[in-house]
């Protein structure tokens, strides 16, 4: 693998999956989607791994969503849309082992597909969360739907509607429940691994059943919301050329709250 790194501590029962494109701020391309899918599916069969940590390399970003240089072929029919990020997460690949996210730096846009399929999030003090879709003439659909189950409605609405003009600090993300633990900068991975190690020490069947129960409480609502997403995106997204113009003209300034 070239875009994802897998490190397994069999003694602790913990695997660390690291997004490994630091030169692109761990933006997701099609190769990474494929490699993540293989990792999640392979971990289903590795009984030595009982808990997983998901992190980003480089320190500047956990993940900045889909790589804008990625070419995603689309069917000509408006009734069929391919969103590669829908297949990037652990739940989408049938992994019911607990996954803890360790966030340092930026987590934005498509990163919420991944965070939305983790059990909880540990973040360094310098982490920042934002969703720039609306700034560039794009509908925030799957991202906002996933975050609406993690944060109060008003906080999600503000984050996705303010776009690139505002970022949610790690402190504020902790206050509103998106982040479960706040650490010093550079310590999120250590803290996440400590949590995963504790969980991995419990009987796997009970842990995985609990993960499945938690997800069952969420997935009915998500399924109904996700069914609307392709239509909302098709209706609300500006043409690609116009999106590119807005992206090229993006403002450098932003407020962190």
- CA-based gyration radius: 18 Å
CATH class: Alpha Beta
Query: Count of helical segments?
Result: 8
Report the helical percentage.
25-40%
Please state roughly what percent of the residues sit in beta strands, choosing from under 5%, 5-15%, 15-25%, 25-35%, 35-45% or over 45%: 15-25%
Strand order of the largest sheet: 1-2-3-5-7-10
Mean of the pLDDT scores?
Answer: 95
The ordered H/E elements are EEHEEEEHEEHHEHEHHHE
Going by CATH, the architecture would be: Alpha-Beta Complex
How many individual domains?
1
Distance between the termini: 37 Å
Total number of beta strands: 11
**At the fourth CATH level, what is the homologous superfamily?**
2-enoyl-CoA Hydratase, Chain A, domain 1
Tell me, what's the shape?
A: globular
What structural class should be given to the helix and strand makeup?
alpha/beta
Classify the fold: give the CATH topology: 2-enoyl-CoA Hydratase, Chain A, domain 1
Low-confidence stretches: none
Largest sheet: 6 strands, mixed
Pfam families: ECH_1
InterPro entries: ClpP/crotonase-like_dom_sf, Enoyl-CoA_hydra/iso
Protein name: Enoyl-CoA hydratase
Family: Belongs to the enoyl-CoA hydratase/isomerase family.
């Amino acid at each position: 693998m070239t875009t994802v790194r897998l490190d397994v501590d069999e003694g602790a029962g913990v695997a660390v999956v690291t997004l490994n494109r630091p030169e692109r701020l761990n933006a997701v391309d099609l190769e990474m989607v494929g490699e993540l899918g293989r990792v999640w599916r392979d971990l289903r069969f590795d009984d030595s791994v009982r808990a997983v940590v998901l992190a980003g390399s480089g320190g500047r970003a956990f993940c900045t969503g889909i790589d804008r240089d990625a070419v995603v072929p689309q069917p000509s029919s408006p009734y069929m849309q391919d969103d590669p990020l829908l297949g990037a997460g652990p739940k989408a690949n049938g992994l019911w082992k607990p996954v803890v996210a360790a966030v340092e730096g930026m987590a934005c846009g498509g990163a919420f597909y991944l965070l939305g399929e983790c059990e909880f999030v540990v973040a360094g003090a310098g982490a920042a969360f934002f969703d720039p879709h609306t700034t560039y003439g794009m509908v925030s659909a799957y991202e906002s739907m996933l975050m609406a189950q993690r944060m109060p409605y008003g906080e999600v609405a503000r984050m996705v509607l303010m776009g690139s003009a505002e970022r949610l600090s790690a402190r504020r993300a902790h206050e509103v429940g998106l982040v479960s633990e706040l650490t010093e900068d550079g310590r999120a991975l250590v803290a996440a691994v400590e949590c995963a190690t504790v969980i991995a020490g419990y009987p796997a069947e009970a842990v995985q059943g609990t993960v499945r129960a938690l997800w069952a409480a969420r997935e009915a609502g998500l399924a109904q919301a996700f069914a609307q997403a392709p239509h909302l995106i098709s209706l609300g997204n500006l043409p690609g050329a116009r999106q590119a113009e807005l992206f090229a003209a993006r403002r450098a300034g932003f407020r962190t709250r």
